Amino acid sequence: MSPAKKLHHLMAGGQLLLLVKTDSHNGIWEISQWARGCPTRNVAETRFQVPPQMMYRDKVSAACAEREALSPLLQDVYGATNVSEGDLPGLDSDSPGMDSDDGVGEGSGLGNRGEHTTTFAQTLLHFLKGNVGTGLLGLPLAVKHAGLVVGPVCLVVMAIVAVDCMLTLVRCSHYLCRKLKRPTLCYGGTVMHAMEVSNFTWLNSKGSWGKNVISLFLITTQLGFCCVYFVFMADNIKQVVEQRTNGTSESAGEEGAPGGFAMDKRLYMLCLLPFIILLSFVKNLRWLAPFSALANVCMLTSIIIIYYYMSTNIPKKLDVKYVGEANALPLFFGMAIFAFEGIGVVLPLENRMRDPGSFKLLLGMGMLVVTLLYLSLGTLGYVCFGSKVMPSVTLNLPISNGLYESVKILFSLGIFVSYGVQFYVAAEIIAPFFVAKVPRRWQLSVDLLCRAVLVCITCALAMLIPKLDLVIALVGSISSSALALIIPPLLEIVTFWPEWRRQGGAGRGEDTEQSTAELKSAMRPWQYWLVIGKNCVVSFVGFAGFVAGTYVSIVEIVAPEPLPIPGNFSRHLHVL
């Protein structure tokens, strides 16, 4: 049987995983042209830089292809008898987009979980690292927006909902992996396959669209983090430099003594730009690993010092509000969900655990630590600094004390390295698209140019919105709310709806196994309608926060004046 006939046979069963040499004009190239013109519309094309002469073409539908089914076709294409994951160009586990930690790529389905696994402790550390960042330092201001009573309560509720959505995503991924006989799935892959096998037929042909939406939100989140990092570093460096040059001992946020040295924070961003561009040229994260470890130590040390200062400087008379202004609640939502948006790292971490069965325990422990950290720092920071709390709590520390100046420097160094890690994800998705369109001799130059342009874009956006709290709220409202609150509940409905409607629930079909995770699906009608109602409420709240948070953030950026609240909602909130 010719490769084209085997390809047709596989596609008739909804199975296709085709690797094509783009520099070949023989039979392989003819297969590529035939597949491009075939009636199947969901043939997604992704280009990778390594190796530059290869193209990866992936179409997986309801009955996902297994390795044995693909062997004959791969033998014809590559002349190999035992094709493994390592033999496929561009499909090693460290390649961009292939089940990497960015949460965007999708596993090839040809490897197994035993490779590159992590222990329980290692995964827990990675989880904590992925959830604790600059969003933590903005929580005191977020609590101020909501009030000393409302803020902590909302943080706890948001943490519970975030854990439920993370577990929902993992549960859907496990179910689809068993149903499609795949070892792992990433966030985008889970959404894509859930839509393709859904009972809602109008979704079946839109799986690639769903995956692209997830990728778009993940890229927006990563580049949003980079914008936040620019503003954070500029704010803290500006404060230290102007204290040293002017010798002032005023409170945080001072522009400099009269007649002293004062420079706009945008100029500090421009000064940082060349160094960050050089950092973005690092295309192997292993080179950043030692610096990343050092950055983690710097940030941990800084957090300990911050806690020490706040716990020893609580004023006798508190300058706080117990219930915040109604028009500030959307800003609280955006800043809080920005801090809690760690759902993008959940599946990559779970997929690489040595014992994935213990991930639920790990998730509970990790989120308990994260929630306690957020609650304590957010509440303590607002109690300590009151109405004068700044967008980053580091800016409230005394600027005339060497110890607290070191906190700003150490945290800025840590964030500088973190920029390289966060930027890597977006760059490895966007740059190959342009690299594949130029001759091989220009590919390195185009790749570096794309990275430099992306860094300049994040810097320009940060300069346009040089207010740390508003950048955090905007990024959180737009992308974090979608990834963490809106999509997971809807994904559960799309994934489990046919099983909820089937007598006996999931776990008793021909292609599934009874497991604790599937018992949720074996429910009575009133139970699954209750779950559907809960999911609809969570998605609606997330969407409302998305709209309100984005609107308020943009209005505050364009015209920072009090927003009109319809009706007497604000007055009624204060009465409560």
Give an account of the 3D structure:
This protein has 576 residues and is mainly alpha-helical. It folds into two domains: 3-77, no CATH class; 120-575, Up-down Bundle (Amino acid/polyamine transporter I). The protein is built from 20 helices and three strands. The chain has helices at 3-12, 27-36, 67-78, 120-131, 134-137, 139-146, 150-180, 187-196, 201-204, 207-246, 265-280, 285-312, 329-340, 346-351, 359-385, 402-435, 443-464, 468-501, 525-558, 569-575; strands at 15-21, 44-47, 54-60. The protein has a three-stranded antiparallel sheet with strand order 1-3-2.
Give the C-alpha Rg. 25 Å
Quick check: average pLDDT? Answer: 74
- Highest CATH level, the class of the largest domain: Mainly Alpha
| Strand tally | 3
Structural domains: how many: 2
Number of helices: 20
What's the architecture of the largest domain in CATH terms? Answer: Up-down Bundle
- The portion of residues forming beta strands comes to under 5%
As laid out across the biggest beta sheet, the strand order is 1-3-2
Q: CATH topology of the largest domain, anyone?
A: Amino acid/polyamine transporter I
SSE string, helix = H, strand = E? HEHEEHHHHHHHHHHHHHHHHHH
Helix fraction by DSSP (H/I, runs of at least 4): 55-70%
- Report low-confidence residues grouped into runs of 5 or more: 1-115, 249-259, 503-521, 565-576
Give the biggest sheet. 3 strands, antiparallel
Distance linking N and C termini: 76 Å
Keywords: Membrane, Transmembrane, Transmembrane helix
InterPro entries: AA_transpt_TM (IPR013057)
Transmembrane segments: 149-172, 213-232, 266-282, 289-309, 329-349, 361-389, 409-436, 448-465, 471-491, 528-554
Subcellular location: Membrane
